[in-house]
Each structure stands twice: as C-alpha cells, then as structure tokens.
Amino acid sequence: MTAVKLDGVATATAVKNELRVRVDALKARGITPGLGTLLVGDDPGSRSYVAGKHRDCAEIGIESFRVDLPATASADEVRDAIVALNENPAVTGYIIQLPLPAGLDENAMLELMDPAKDADGLHPTNLGRLVLGVGSTLDSPLPCTPAGIVEMLERYAVPISGKHVVVVGRGLTVGRPIGLLLTRKGLDATVTLTHSRTTQLETHVRQADIVVAAVGSAGLIRPEWIKPGAAVLDVGITRVVDPETGKGRLVGDVDPGVAEIAGYLSPMPGGVGPMTRAMLLKNVVDAAERL
Ligand SMILES: Nc1nc(=O)c2c([nH]1)NC[C@@H]1CN(c3ccc(C(=O)N[C@@H](CCC(=O)O)C(=O)O)cc3)C=[N+]21
C-alpha cells in the first residue's frame, strides 16, 4: 500500500501509556477509577467489545465492573441497573453497550445516566455540551470514536484546519457527532455529512481531503472516489463468513484498493476501533480527575 497507515493499535498503546501515569497519580490521591459496562442480551459482537473494554481497564490499572442482563430484560430491569450504576461510588464512569435489544428505548436509557459518569459522551447533556462547546473547553466527555479519530489525525500530523471532511453515515456514535467536533474552533474543518439517502455520494467523497466512512456497508468506498493523497478512515464494521474457510471475519466500508490512492489510511481492523477504546479509558480517567 502506498498510503501511510494510521496505526490505531500503536497509537492506542501510546495513549494508554500516558493514561497509566495519570491513573497512578489518582491512586496516590486515594481515587481508583472504575469503569462499569451494562450489556443487555447476547449479541456476540457486543460481548466481544465489552470483554475488550474490561481487558483495556486491567492494562492501565482501572477497576471494571460488568453488569450483564438477558435479552429478555424488561425496561424496568434495565432502568434499575442504570440507577444502581449511578449510585455505585466505585463506578466512576460507565457505558450502556449499544445497540440495546429491540423494544428497549435507547434514548430513554441514555437519558437516565448520571451525565458526570457518562464514559461514552452520549448522554443528551454531554451531546448538548458538544454543541455548546464551540470555542471553549467545557469539562465534559466527548464521544469516543470522534475523539479517537481526531486524536489519531493529530498524532500523525494530518492537517485538519480548513480541510474538507466528508463523513459517510449519520449514526449516533460517529457520523452525527463528529462534525460537531471537527468544526469547533481550534480544529476548524469544513464538514459534509452524507448518509444512505444522499444523492451522488461519489461526487461528495471526491471532494474530500479526509473521508470518515462509518456506515457498515462492506467496500462501499471505491478507490476511484478518493482524491489522491486524501486521508481515509475506515470505521464501518461488517461481519462476513469466509466461504472458503467458514471462518468469520471483519470487513470495513473502504475497498482495499483505496490504499493505492490515499495518502493516509486508517484500516479496519487495527485503526479507529482501538482508538475508540483508548478514548473510553481517557473519558474515565478525565472524569475521575474531576472528582
Ligand atoms: N455504548 C457504546 N459505546 C461504544 O463505543 C460502542 C457501542 N456502544 N456499541 C458498538 C460500537 C462498536 N465499538 C467498537 C469498539 C472497538 C472496536 C475494536 O477495537 N475493533 C478492533 C477489532 C476487534 C475484533 O477483532 O473483534 C479493530 O478495529 O481493530 C470495534 C468496535 C464500540 N461501540
């Protein structure tokens, strides 16, 4: 590949090494950060993400607490679990693993969280602060994937200011919030937000200095759509079964041929995913430092 690889594993390791120092300093003050996870149901993908988050915590000396409910849990049972996490002093931050099983109202559940313990930055108060935060540094968590993307671009010195970012996908965790972050004063990108009903997606992507592909549509972004030298971040995750080996594997939104055209490529796996997890840890450490 000709593109410089935006290596999420190496960058996340660097972030974690910095966080470990801050965790030690907190512990010296008698504060142990603790991450809670609330998982409802038994989706294999969600299970493996949650397991990864607990491993990450152990790596940097953060405690972690798992709350797993069956797919059949009622709204009341989920609510009770959220209230218990809000009230548990050992849990300094937590996440509700999304998606919740059909029939549970995700927005209503996110709204029940204590915003000071929201490690994902997805509570309405924190998303509101993301909107309000233009030009200032409000002390609130940022959504993990957008924060991880910006952190990686900055560490690789990819220019953002004045550049045209085309975001593909409008989901809650990536597409919707990332434009709010990238257009803040200090980052100063110009952002186009596209989605499944966008006409002439290709025409938009061709304009982009930076492409953020967060749809979940395997190979959607074609090499001929990419401006030579652009930075491309592959965020989409599609699980496919290899017909030859019968094994499951993960495929991104970006066609592998893009590596020959782009200047920078964040691959999937090994790109934004590990950075998302590192930013979750950062949100937990940040919140513990505010205690
Ligand atoms: N409340 C909530 N917060 C989230 O942050 C959240 C969520 N719900 N629901 C699901 C999505 C997905 N997500 C991933 C994080 C890391 C990897 C990751 O580390 N992936 C590895 C590969 C992992 C593997 O091989 O299975 C990589 O890209 O290299 C993937 C996906 C967080 N999400």
Q: Which term fits the overall shape? A: globular
Biggest sheet features: 6 strands, parallel
The mean pLDDT is: 96
- Side by side, the strands of the main sheet go 1-11-8-7-5-6
CATH class assignment of the largest domain:
Alpha Beta
The small-molecule ligands in this entry are: 5,10-Methenyltetrahydrofolate
Beta fraction = 15-25%
Tell me the quaternary state: single chain
Q: Give the termini distance in whole angstroms.
A: 46 Å
Q: Would you tell me the structural class of the helices and strands?
A: alpha/beta
**Low-confidence region ranges:** none
In the CATH scheme, what's the topology name of the largest domain?
A: Rossmann fold
Based on the coordinates given, report the CATH architecture of the largest domain: 3-Layer(aba) Sandwich
CATH superfamily of the largest domain: NAD(P)-binding Rossmann-like Domain
Q: Using the CA coordinates, give the radius of gyration.
A: 19 Å
Helical element count? 9
The helix-strand sequence is: EHEHEHEHHHEHEHEEEEEH
Number of strands: 11
Number of domains: 2
Helix percent band: 25-40%
